[in-house]
């Protein structure tokens, strides 16, 4: 049977990757979902007096082109995905509605076996444990399916919500960095997680469509 010319998975295997948790569905970004995500970003991500991000992209929320910029950032990440370096931005959905983004990234994964994570949720979706659930999803993918040896993340010292997620999952301190944030010094706390220290969730992660993605992500064949 001839391949379906309308099937994007033939040339872009990430289009078929799906992660499922008890409440959420995570898929690598697509254009329709990105448009919905940009709308959600306009609804607000954090209080105006706070800045949880190293790159203060939300400061432009009231400017023309902000929503388009959210999409352009994701397009750049998508265009640069390859075995040497990748950043996969998963759109997080609950009941079909896009609520935020969960990123899983790596450099020379086949050699270093290390990933980093980052994420955000709309303010309306915060406070229900979804941040923990979506990070558990990509950590489960990294450790149990990709064979990662380490996972790293970072958060500013005053980003209590992100640091609590890291604590719940078993991360340990991995150093401190000083950055300028809105013209003032701020401490960025790095954290590190290993498969042995990871506090696994009680639920089982559902994963579909991973096989064709392995080569694109530079993932070694399963042992």
From TrEMBL:
**Highest taxon of source:** Bacteria
In terms of InterPro entries, this protein maps to:
Acyl_CoA_acyltransferase, GNAT_dom, Ribosomal_N-acetyltransferase
Give the Gene3D superfamilies listed for this entry: 3.40.630.30
Q: Which Pfam families match?
A: Acetyltransf_3
Start and end residues of each N-acetyltransferase domain: 17-194
Q: What is this protein called?
A: GNAT family protein
């Amino acid at each position: 049977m001839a391949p379906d010319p309308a099937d994007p998975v033939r040339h872009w295997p990430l289009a078929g990757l799906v992660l499922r948790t008890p409440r959420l569905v995570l898929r690598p970004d697509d254009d329709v979902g990105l448009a919905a995500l940009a709308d959600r970003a306009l609804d607000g991500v954090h209080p105006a007096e706070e800045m949880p991000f190293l790159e203060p992209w939300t400061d432009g929320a009231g400017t023309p082109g902000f929503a388009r910029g959210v999409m352009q950032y994701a397009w750049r990440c998508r265009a640069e995905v390859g075995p040497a370096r990748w950043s996969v931005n998963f759109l997080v959905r609950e009941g079909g509605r896009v609520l935020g983004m969960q990123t899983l990234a790596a450099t020379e994964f086949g050699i270093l076996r290390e990933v980093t994570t980052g994420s955000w949720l709309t303010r309306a979706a915060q406070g229900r444990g979804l941040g923990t659930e979506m990070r558990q999803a990509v950590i489960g993918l990294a450790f149990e399916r990709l064979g990662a040896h380490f996972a790293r993340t970072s958060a500013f010292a005053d980003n209590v919500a992100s640091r609590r997620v890291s604590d719940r999952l078993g991360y340990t301190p991995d150093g401190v960095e000083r950055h300028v944030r809105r013209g003032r010094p701020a401490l960025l706390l790095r954290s590190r997680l290993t498969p042995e220290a990871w506090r696994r969730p009680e639920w089982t992660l559902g994963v579909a469509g991973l096989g064709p993605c392995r080569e694109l992500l530079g993932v070694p064949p399963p042992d």
